[in-house]
Amino acid sequence: MAKLKVGIFSLLLVILLSIFFVVLYQEELPVNSLAYLSGHGRFRGKNMLFEIVEFWHNKRESSTSPQNTKTDVTSGRDFVTKPKSSPEDTPIPMLSLKAFQRLPQWDFDDIYNQDSPPKPNTCPQSLRKSKDEVFQKAFLPNIRLFMHRYNFNMKEWNRLSHFNNPFGFMQMKYDEVWSAVKLIPKPIQPLLLPKPGGDGCVHCAVVGSGGILYGSKMGAEIDAHDYVFRMNAAVIKGYEEDVGNKTSVYVHTSFSITQSPIIFSPYGYRSAPHDEGIKYVLIPEGLRDFHWLKALIKGEKISDSDFQNENPRAYYSGQYNMSRFYVLHQDFMRYVRNRFLKSGYLNDDIWSIVRPTNGAFTLFLALHTCDTVSAYGFMTDNYAQFSNYYAEKQSKRHSKQH
């Protein structure tokens, strides 16, 4: 099936079993690799690792906190529980990734900022009304989704500096991050609202790039949703019958929005979606994303980082508007990893380059902003019958070949 309906938690498990979890940070990946952009590919080479998500086979293991074993912060051989401290108006001493041989576990690791509850939900089909006990125990309906200058201060910086990016600011400099964050206004409204004249529910489609969509003729069904989420190389032209042509929310990193047009140019991809009124969501996966964000908001070229002299606004085809631009909060991304997508590789020395894919973050963003979610183009059990991407019309992937 090209479509999976995310109506209850048990179906969500099926979808997430199909999402690759281990992703090397994209600056570590060769620019000629197609696989890293969406997580649907099969990573190859000694630094290319992947793991199909094993989503809560053991309820107890997934829902309880890790054992609190105290160790020296600098050794990082096991878990740590006590945070670094500093005067409230100064940054804590910078923590180094190399100091930890596995993901450090702090005693506040599973504590997250939450926003005030929105007005009561009147949608009878809403996921928030699920009766699944495991889902309700893990799900935080008011988790803080987006960062802005008014929810960022030195106390927050010091707390988040205990977590590696994109889950925090470990090994980053305060001034470089703050110079971008101080420009982010508070969102004036929620990401999505029910459509006027509708049933009071927010109905969403999340469209991945999996080859299962090629020939599916799901386009009209996708576009019939109130809102459509896409990410990375969202190739649409020439594939409308299968994937639709509407994009309401586009999720990206600075790397994916700049490299997708290069890597997917053979498939006709020229730029990120730019529908009238589209909303953009940035995943701040590293320092270069804050450099990107600063230049984007100020309308300048980037003066430093991997994108030196690039003009970020050129990549949004005239649709950039800060009132429709959102930046994912580190707490939200850590919550997704900790409560839903925790990988065994986090106990390995490669822990710092392990994170959910852009597609996984997009799916969970939809689950926290929509009442009903349908997922298209994600992996299913028969993924080997299809190409990595629907844009690869003639390519078929077989497990023995890769």
Automatic annotation (TrEMBL):
One of its GO terms (cellular component) is Golgi membrane. Pathway: Protein modification; protein glycosylation. Disulfide bonds join 204-370. Its EC number is 2.4.3.3. InterPro entries: Glyco_trans_29, GT29-like_sf, Sialyl_trans. It is found in: Golgi apparatus membrane. Residues 61-89 are annotated as: Disordered. One of its GO terms (molecular function) is alpha-N-acetylgalactosaminide alpha-2,6-sialyltransferase activity. It is a single-pass type II membrane protein. It catalyses: a beta-D-galactosyl-(1->3)-N-acetyl-alpha-D-galactosaminyl derivative + CMP-N-acetyl-beta-neuraminate = a beta-D-galactosyl-(1->3)-[N-acetyl-alpha-neuraminyl-(2->6)]-N-acetyl-alpha-D-galactosaminyl derivative + CMP + H(+); a 3-O-[N-acetyl-alpha-D-galactosaminyl]-L-threonyl-[protein] + CMP-N-acetyl-beta-neuraminate = a 3-O-[N-acetyl-alpha-neuraminosyl-(2->6)-N-acetyl-alpha-D-galactosaminyl]-L-threonyl-[protein] + CMP + H(+); a 3-O-[N-acetyl-alpha-neuraminyl-(2->3)-beta-D-galactosyl-(1->3)-N-acetyl-alpha-D-galactosaminyl]-L-threonyl-[protein] + CMP-N-acetyl-beta-neuraminate = a 3-O-{alpha-Neu5Ac-(2->3)-beta-D-Gal-(1->3)-[alpha-Neu5Ac-(2->6)]-alpha-D-GalNAc}-L-threonyl-[protein] + CMP + H(+). It holds the Pfam family Glyco_transf_29. GO terms for biological process: oligosaccharide biosynthetic process. Keywords: Disulfide bond, Glycoprotein, Glycosyltransferase, Golgi apparatus, Membrane, Signal-anchor, Transferase, Transmembrane, Transmembrane helix. Residues 63-74 have a biased composition (Polar residues). PANTHER family: ALPHA-N-ACETYLGALACTOSAMINIDE ALPHA-2,6-SIALYLTRANSFERASE 1, ALPHA-N-ACETYLGALACTOSAMINIDE ALPHA-2,6-SIALYLTRANSFERASE 2-LIKE-RELATED. Belongs to the glycosyltransferase 29 family. This is alpha-N-acetylgalactosaminide alpha-2,6-sialyltransferase. The gene is LOC107387721.
